[in-house]
Design a protein that fits this description.
Radius of gyration: 15 Å
Distance between the termini: 44 Å
Mean pLDDT: 85
Number of helices: 1
CATH superfamily: Immunoglobulins
Largest sheet: 4 strands, antiparallel
Number of domains: 1
Order of helices and strands: HEEEEEEE
CATH architecture: Sandwich
Low-confidence stretches: 1-9
Strand order of the largest sheet: 4-3-6-7
Amino acid sequence: MQVFLRFSFLGTDKPKNLKAETISATSLKVTWDAPWNVHPHSKRYLLEFGEVRKEFHYNAFNGTYTIDGLTPGRKYKVLVRLSLQNPNYLAPAAEIDVET
């Protein structure tokens, strides 16, 4: 029980239900839900795909992002995680592999 209480206070889970839907040969619609367990100092989502990293303020994000300018027929790993005020802390990532 002590480990659970510590985790719920200090930890942050990965986002839930990460999905990517092909819109065209060069774009994807990425959606996800907030994690159940979120540290009170979580400040932003980090979305990574290929060599690109996008940031979204945690409280302002609506759960959908369109990725444009992708290479047709290429495989991408899409990762989403939360980050705290401290830039050295990254929560576990939800990840999926997609192909345009």
